[in-house]
């Protein structure tokens, strides 16, 4: 692949606004200096995904993913570094000049990119056939026009047509220079096998004589296709979809989301339908915040996609009783995913596509606004009606509704739904609550997890310090009486001092590194920067922790090149461990409440006391290194040796203990009792 010049890479990175880039995919809400959201990379119900605008990076405290705008696009799109750069360049109108590449050179970039490229070629090929071939115009375009779709909608969704021929796409792709193995990997062509399953060497197009619906991922790249036959043949499936591939996972894709994502965020609600034509008809009718599960059961991955853009979803049910019952489980998953769920039921025999064509855009919009109801109320009424007059069915229906209510995360909403359910079924509310408590009973603790015996509603019992808190107390000087009240005695043995020194050392090394990364240009004192102070006080390799040593060397190289180390520059590394470390160092999980300022309480921060912060960080690091050397002396003295050597080691140990006590005095920390 042609190399993108470094100057252009720097321009793209400097131009890309991390808030805008992430905001295209995730609902961000400001909290203090940072913006927060539910992580798009793993399933969670409370936000742990943070974006720091000032430093230009993101960090998830749940799954640990982190990086800058380029890395975010790589992770969310599954794209390579150059592809992510080009994505951002397109977003910000930056022209990327590259050498001309043959189709085969493009395919050699990597397997995933090759499949994206071949899928894009197929999409363009089908789109051209729909508009320019005789068969495409008369059959494919004629069908879409009959369904009321205009040219603008066809072009927006890049609809197409596959000729009724065995090898039209295969021949076109091979003529253009594409490797047939990528046609097979994406499922565009099928390998014919014999009765024993052996490859016969014959290939044919999967899609033939069908209207083609390209399926885009959230970034707009084609990952697969849905295809509808126009033949009246009971033996042939009406719809045929691409098989799963490296780039297409049905459970993580929603049809139309690429086109709908901005409207969903703006309207603060997502309309969920079943089929491709439902999406197309509603989008054309002005309801652009609509997506489809494409006829598959709703999955957790699809629910996470919706939640990136809105907490509100309205499911549009076909007027078909059997279809409604089959969809109820998927709607329960929406509740479990923390979404606010409403439903609209269309008249019997109608689906969203047929109904909007029947009544028109305005009346359709009015219908879904007036007929929308919360899902629990809808389900309660539905199952109560079906169970009417049958006590056994009624009991089953009540339990079914209670299972749905149990999936609602909000306690107040659950209480309201329980009251409504009791009214609809004509059952005493307290009896219903008792049954609900059985349904909603939490699962037993996992093996190996010890319960603290705390009863619901009781405050948590006091606890002793954690291992990490003990280390912090040792380092930063907790009051001895406070430690004793927590059940910890102020002795080296109780702290496990000589077992935990490596942990303390890592904490101390990390603090020095954090100050260097965040504040390198700031002055410790006039004309002496943080970077200059640490470099003058520490040698070239001051850290024992390998990852920290590698990070320190990266900072040192930046300084040798005449630049202060910056988060925006350092975070561009390919090393996941380094990126994660940098974002950890630069991200504050918690911030001081602004209410303190309104109450005229001023809290000093480390920027106000930079000199003291750096000096103390260095003292703590030195103290840890001194204690490590004391341990080494003790270990040495435990072994047989010559008298002169033993005297030398004992003197060194005494010198170190004196230094250790002096450092402890300067820090105001607890001085460990000697042995």
Please describe what this structure looks like.
This protein is of the alpha+beta class. It has 4 domains: 6-91, Zinc finger, CHC2-typedomain (DNA Primase, Chain A), CATH 3.90.580; 102-193 and 203-248, DNA primase DNAg catalytic core, N-terminal domain (Alpha-Beta Complex), CATH 3.90.980.10; 377-439, Pheromone ER-1, CATH 1.20.50; 474-589 and 596-667, no CATH class. Helix content is 52%, strand content 12%. The protein has 31 helices and 18 strands. A 5-stranded antiparallel sheet has the order 1-2-3-4-5, with helices on both faces. It has a 5-stranded mixed sheet with strand order 13-12-14-15-16, sandwiched between helices. Strand 7 (189-193) and strand 8 (199-205) form a beta hairpin. The longest helix has 28 residues, at 610-637.
Summarize, please.
This protein is of the alpha+beta class.
Write the layout of secondary structure elements.
Blueprint: H1 6-15, H2 18-23, E1 29-31, E2 34-37, E3 49-52, E4 57-60, E5 66-67, H3 69-77, H4 81-91, H5 103-107, H6 111-132, H7 134-146, H8 151-156, E6 160-162, H9 168-175, H10 180-185, E7 189-193, E8 199-205, E9 210-216, E10 222-229, E11 239-241, H11 257-267, E12 270-273, H12 276-284, E13 290-292, H13 300-309, E14 312-319, H14 321-336, E15 340-348, H15 352-359, H16 361-371, E16 373-374, H17 375-386, H18 391-406, H19 411-425, H20 429-439, H21 467-476, H22 480-485, H23 492-495, H24 497-519, E17 523-525, E18 528-529, H25 530-537, H26 546-560, H27 567-570, H28 576-586, H29 595-598, H30 610-637, H31 643-667
Parallel strand pairs: 12-13, 12-14, 14-15
Antiparallel strand pairs: 1-2, 2-3, 3-4, 4-5, 6-9, 7-8, 9-10, 10-11, 15-16, 17-18
Helix pairs in contact: 3-4, 6-7, 12-15, 15-16, 17-18, 17-19, 18-19, 19-20, 24-26, 24-30, 25-30, 30-31
């Amino acid at each position: 692949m042609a190399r993108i010049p470094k100057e252009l890479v720097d321009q793209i990175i400097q131009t890309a606004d991390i808030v805008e880039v992430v905001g295209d995919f995730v609902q961000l809400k400001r909290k203090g200096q940072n913006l927060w959201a539910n992580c798009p990379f793993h399933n969670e119900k409370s936000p742990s995904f943070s974006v720091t605008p000032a430093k230009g990076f993101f960090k998830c405290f749940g799954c640990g993913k982190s990086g800058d705008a380029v890395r975010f696009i790589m992770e969310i799109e599954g794209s390579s570094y150059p592809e992510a750069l080009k994505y951002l360049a397109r977003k910000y109108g930056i022209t990327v000049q590259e050498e001309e590449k043959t189709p085969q050179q493009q395919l050699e970039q990597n397997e995933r990119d090759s499949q994206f490229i071949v899928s894009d070629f197929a999409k363009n090929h089908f789109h051209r056939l729909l508009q320019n071939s005789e068969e495409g115009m008369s059959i494919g375009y004629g069908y879409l026009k009959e369904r009321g779709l205009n040219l603008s909608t066809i072009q927006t969704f890049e609809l197409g047509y596959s000729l009724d021929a065995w090898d039209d796409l295969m021949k076109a792709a091979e003529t253009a220079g594409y490797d047939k193995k990528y046609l097979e990997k994406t499922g565009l062509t099928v390998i014919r096998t014999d009765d024993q399953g052996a490859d016969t060497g014959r290939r044919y197009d999967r899609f033939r004589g069908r209207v083609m619906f390209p399926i885009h991922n959230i970034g707009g790249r084609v990952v697969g296709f849905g295809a509808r036959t126009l033949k009246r043949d009971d033996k042939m499936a009406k719809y045929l979809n691409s098989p799963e591939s490296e780039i297409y996972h049905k459970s993580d894709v929603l049809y139309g989301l690429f086109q709908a994502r901005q409207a969903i965020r703006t309207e603060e609600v997502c309309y969920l339908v079943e089929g491709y034509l439902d999406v197309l008809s509603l989008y054309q009718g002005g309801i652009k915040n609509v997506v489809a599960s494409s006829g598959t059961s709703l999955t957790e991955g699809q629910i996470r996609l919706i939640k990136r853009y809105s907490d509100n979803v309205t499911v549009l049910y076909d007027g078909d009783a059997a279809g409604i019952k089959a969809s109820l489980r998927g709607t329960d998953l929406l509740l479990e995913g923390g979404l606010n769920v409403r439903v609209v039921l269309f008249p019997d025999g109608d689906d969203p596509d047929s109904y909007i064509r029947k009544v028109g855009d305005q009346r359709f919009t009015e219908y879904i606004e007036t007929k929308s109801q919360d899902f629990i109320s809808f389900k309660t009424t539905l199952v109560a009606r079906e169970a009417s007059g049958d006590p056994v069915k009624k009991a089953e229906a009540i339990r079914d509704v209670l299972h749905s209510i149990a999936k609602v995360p909000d306690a107040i909403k659950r209480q309201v739904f329980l009251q409504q359910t009791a009214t609809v079924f004509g059952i005493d509310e307290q009896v219903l609550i008792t049954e609900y408590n059985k349904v909603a009973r939490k699962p037993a603790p996992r093996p190996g997890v010890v319960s603290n015996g705390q009863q619901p509603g009781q405050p948590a019992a006091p606890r002793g310090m954690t291992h990490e808190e003990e280390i912090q107390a040792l380092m930063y000087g907790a009051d001895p009486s406070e430690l004793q009240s927590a059940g910890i005695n102020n002795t080296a043995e109780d702290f496990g001092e000589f077992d935990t020194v490596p942990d303390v050392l890592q904490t101390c090394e990390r603090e020095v590194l954090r100050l260097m990364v965040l504040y390198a240009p700031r002055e410790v004192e006039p004309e002496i920067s943080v970077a200059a102070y640490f470099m003058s006080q520490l040698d070239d390799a001051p850290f024992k922790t390998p990852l920290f040593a590698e990070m320190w060397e990266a900072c040192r190289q930046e300084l040798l090149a005449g630049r202060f180390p910056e988060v925006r520059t350092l975070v561009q590394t390919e090393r996941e461990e380094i990126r994660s470390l940098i974002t950890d160092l630069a991200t504050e999980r918690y911030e001081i409440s602004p209410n303190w300022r309104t109450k005229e309480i001023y809290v000093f921060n480390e920027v106000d006391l930079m000199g003291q912060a750096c000096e103390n960080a260095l003292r703590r690091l030195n103290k840890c290194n001194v204690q490590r050397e004391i341990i080494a002396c003790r270990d040495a003295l435990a072994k047989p040796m010559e008298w002169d050597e033993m005297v030398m080691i004992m003197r060194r140990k005494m010198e170190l203990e004196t230094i250790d006590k002096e450092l402890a005095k300067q820090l105001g920390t607890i001085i460990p009792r000697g042995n």
